[in-house]
């Protein structure tokens, strides 16, 4: 059989599959939808050209403007932690490259995503459009206030480290919703926190230690 059989076939497919097996499954991520999304999204198209060959390596990469695309394992870990499924509505704060948004968009109904660096908001919107992600709605702005127009959200993922969890995000979490956010001082190690809303009450758990770029304010 010659030619391209699957639209997702590309020269990095083997590297992407190795990434999923060696960096993600071997460290305990097992959610089928998450693994499928990580095998599908062409991460090399979300990094600057000069880093393309490192796109599937086990570390974060610079995306310009002092920001980074998270390490693949962390993206998979956070995706699994919010229990994504087909009917859910997600909010992401910190679009960056758009990679995490694309991974979520492979699984859930709609992803709303907010980015505070205008150039990144524009670049990621163009990238996601080009790749055919019609169910990602992005905007430029300060994600601190969430996106009341589309609330409540079943899933909220914050990909920048905050000293404190923004109250508007907690308010915009749906019943049975899940929010993950790195909490802690900037330029230090933070703790990834999971909030679940059950019968209107917030349950908080500590997941793991992470290192994220700081949550900024306009
Ligand atoms: N999820 C991204 C990772 C981006 S790094 C990806 O998959 O590539 C974190 C991003 O959060 C940066 O782009 C940063 O500019 C953005 N950010 C920081 N504070 C923010 C805020 N208050 N609102 C929206 N975006 C914010």
Strand residue percentage: 25-35%
Q: What is the CA-atom radius of gyration, in angstroms?
A: 16 Å
Sheet of most strands: 7 strands, mixed
Question: Can you give the helix content as a percent range?
Answer: 25-40%
What string gives the helices and strands in order?
Answer: HHEEHEHEHEEHEEE
Low-confidence stretches: 1-5
Structural class: alpha/beta
Terminal residue distance: 54 Å
Number of strand segments: 9
Query: What is the mean predicted local confidence, pLDDT?
Result: 96
Q: Give the strand order of the largest sheet, numbering strands 1, 2, ... along the chain.
A: 5-4-3-6-7-8-9
Ligands bound to this protein structure = S-adenosyl-L-homocysteine
What spatial form do the alpha-carbon principal axes imply? globular
Tally of helical runs: 6
């Amino acid at each position: 059989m010659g030619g391209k059989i699957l639209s997702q076939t590309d020269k990095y497919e083997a590297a992407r599959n190795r990434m999923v097996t060696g960096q993600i499954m071997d460290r305990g991520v097992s959610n089928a939808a998450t693994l499928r999304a990580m095998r599908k999204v062409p991460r090399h198209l979300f990094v600057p050209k000069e880093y393309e060959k490192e796109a599937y390596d086990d570390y974060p990469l610079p995306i310009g403007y002092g920001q980074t695309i998270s390490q693949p394992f962390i993206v998979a870990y956070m995706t699994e932690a919010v229990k994504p499924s087909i009917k859910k509505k997600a909010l992401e704060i910190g679009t960056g490259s758009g990679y995490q948004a694309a991974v979520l968009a492979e699984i859930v109904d709609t992803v709303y995503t907010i980015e505070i660096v205008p150039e990144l908001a524009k670049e990621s919107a163009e990238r996601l459009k080009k790749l055919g992600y019609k169910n990602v709605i992005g905007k430029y702005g300060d994600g601190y206030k969430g996106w009341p127009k589309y609330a409540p959200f079943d899933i909220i993922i914050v990909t920048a480290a905050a000293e404190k969890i923004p109250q508007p995000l907690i308010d915009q979490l749906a019943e049975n919703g899940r929010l993950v956010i790195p909490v802690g001082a900037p330029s230090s190690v933070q703790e990834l926190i999971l909030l679940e809303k059950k019968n209107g009450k917030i349950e908080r758990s500590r997941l793991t230690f992470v290192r994220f770029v700081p949550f900024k304010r306009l």
